[in-house]
């Protein structure tokens, strides 16, 4: 498994995600090609209701504690309640990127 897929799996299993994006931003930094060390996470969850930004980030950091010990050098977190997401992005969350699918 890749670090990115580990992050996606752990967050999906531990936080009630209505929308989850994990983006490998390592290529934007001074690291070898193919590195997985810099990530951006966009996470929409009702688990964030009533929690301030620091509490939300602590929730995510707790889930990813093992990865933050060495695999992840930088983690940009964008955490939203469903209402915050709706107000900033509209009525429906963005569709996830296409992963290919079958070619008929």
Structure report:
There is one protein chain. Helix content is 34%, strand content 19%. The model has no long low-confidence stretch (mean pLDDT 87). The chain has one domain: GMP Synthetase, Chain A, domain 3, CATH 3.30.300. Strands 1-2-3 form a three-stranded mixed beta sheet. The chain is an alpha+beta fold and 104 residues long.
Jot down its keywords:
34% helix; 104 residues; globular; GMP Synthetase, Chain A, domain 3; 3 strands; three-stranded mixed beta sheet; alpha+beta; 4 helices
Radius of gyration: 15 Å
CATH classification, class level? Alpha Beta
Shape: globular
Task: Summarize the helix and strand pattern as letters.
Answer: HEEHHEH
Main sheet overview: 3 strands, mixed
CATH architecture: 2-Layer Sandwich
Unreliable stretches covering 5 or more consecutive residues: none
Which whole number gives the mean pLDDT?
87
Write the layout of secondary structure elements.
Elements: H1 3-14, E1 19-24, E2 38-44, H2 53-63, H3 65-68, E3 74-80, H4 82-89
Parallel strand pairs: 2-3
Antiparallel strand pairs: 1-2
